[in-house]
Amino acid sequence: MSDALKPGFFSGVALSGSVELSADAIVVGSGAGGSVAARELAKAGLSVIVFEEGAHRTPKDFDQREDRMLPMLFQESGGRATEDMAIRVLQGRGVGGSTVHNTNLCKRTPDEILELWATKYGVVGAGPRDLLPSFEAIEQELSVAPIPEKMVNAHNNAIRRGVTALGWKGAVMAHNRVGCLGSGFCELGCAFDAKQNALKVVLPAAVDAGATIYADVTVDRVLTEAGRVTGVRARALGENGKIAAEITATAKIVVLAASATGSAWLARRSGLTDPYEQIGQGLRIHPGGVVAGIFEEEIAAHKGIPQSFECTEHLSFEEGADKRTWIIPAFAHPIGVASMLPGFGAAHMRAMRDYRHYAVLSAMLHDETSGQIMVGEDAPVLRYRMIESDRAALARGLVACGKILFAAGAKKVVFPAIPPVVVSRASDLDALDTSFVRPHNVPLSAVHPMGTMRMGEDKKHSVVSSTGEHHYTKGLFVMDGSLFPTSIGGPPQISIYAFARHLAPHAIARAKS
């Protein structure tokens, strides 16, 4: 084995010139899907190379400073957005992907969604029973458990108080933390190494099994010949930001796990066979808006686990349903809050002085808008224009957030908008004109892109088969959220981990065939 393929974590910064590598399998991306794919392939005795475009950061690098962590851990320094700039899209960038910055919420793909994919979207062998072993194994490996009652902070307890008062459905959620100190900085990387994620758990296991992981390497083309994948072409940037090495890596199989944006961007950029123009189509992002309640008492929502309680009263998985929002607490550190609060100058300062008295809810949309990933020069372009039924469903969800906050004891509720919409009585919410809830007029954000390399047996409406293998390119597999035919209406990390584990045997069989 050459030095280039010794197991371990390496940086492409150290490479130079023209580099040629060879392995049984190449995995593009090191997040939830890529980490599991790499580990399973390596455990099966295959030589594995993982390419990650971001850097390899560890808890000692996570200093809890927003100005440093956002550029370090997020795509485009946290500034990625839809093409029209209406929705901010936060995605991880670095070894471990979005599992480094997420808030550790762990939910399985709803049975209703898996059954919908089977009956309407032609997905075979991925029903609730089929995936159960993978869900159970992943949850055990990541130490998934209910959030202890003592760790439900004042913010989440206030939300629970409101949900309970209304008689709505809600529950404490599960997470994958061990040794959590409740610092509240989950979205900036855990300096205390409590997250049981791809960075801490899965990738080290992949290395122990023999995988080689390169950070700071961007894959810009999938190589094919006669309908079969042959490898990838990539580049490593030096410390000066210029290309330090041109890499050609050959392999029997290639696994795309670069997220629903990155995998589709790479597939389209590579000119893969796509007779029905399905690559990059069907983008879902779970867009969400926020509502703030101002309380007499101090909430101090920035302290403790950010999200531990959910409201599912307004979340239906039936296609076309009026209620399609998952409601969860949402809070940010001072800079993040300041960027979303309406007003300028003295008015903005007064609003920030209430920082410790805010409780904030997010209505996250189980969206049916179908967006696209387009090929930009160096990054994907997210084309996404919210359809009216989605806008209306989101508005209903935000009104529901207002009702929860009032029921919890808020003295007034604020909808960030231009201009701000302030409601002083719960009774006014039913008659509220929600036409102000629209892109560009209220701050919208998304953290769950999915659906651009959809799985299914019908080649006219999918990109990969139910085994995860590309319909027209033998040996090319997809193992990330781009597989999902629709939105899943909740946090996708456990689903992505589980699908990668579920599909890995098919990739192993192809590599050994």
What do you see in this structure?
- With 513 residues, the protein is an alpha/beta fold.
- The protein folds into two domains: 3-56 and 94-102 and 107-141 and 197-272 and 450-512, FAD/NAD(P)-binding domain; 146-184 and 285-446, Cholesterol Oxidase, domain 2 (2-Layer Sandwich), CATH 3.30.410.
- Helix content is 26%, strand content 22%.
- It contains eleven helices and 24 strands.
- It has helices at residues 32-43, 66-73, 111-120, 128-141, 154-166, 198-208, 259-269, 334-340, 345-352, 388-408, 493-512, and strands at residues 8-11, 17-22, 25-28, 48-51, 87-89, 145-146, 170-172, 174-175, 212-215, 217-225, 228-237, 243-250, 253-256, 281-283, 288-294, 309-311, 325-329, 358-365, 371-375, 380-383, 412-415, 421-423, 444-446, 476-478.
- The strands form seven sheets. Strands 1-9-4-3-13-24 form a six-stranded parallel sheet. Strands 17-18-15-21-22 form a five-stranded antiparallel sheet. A four-stranded mixed sheet has the order 2-12-11-10.
- β19 and β20 (380-383) form a beta hairpin.
- α1 (32-43) packs parallel to α11.
Question: What secondary-structure arrangement, pairings included, does this model have?
Answer:
Blueprint: E1 8-11, E2 17-22, E3 25-28, H1 32-43, E4 48-51, H2 66-73, E5 87-89, H3 111-120, H4 128-141, E6 145-146, H5 154-166, E7 170-172, E8 174-175, H6 198-208, E9 212-215, E10 217-225, E11 228-237, E12 243-250, E13 253-256, H7 259-269, E14 281-283, E15 288-294, E16 309-311, E17 325-329, H8 334-340, H9 345-352, E18 358-365, E19 371-375, E20 380-383, H10 388-408, E21 412-415, E22 421-423, E23 444-446, E24 476-478, H11 493-512
Parallel strand pairs: 1-9, 2-12, 3-4, 3-13, 4-9, 5-23, 13-24
Antiparallel strand pairs: 6-8, 7-16, 10-11, 11-12, 14-19, 15-18, 15-21, 17-18, 19-20, 21-22
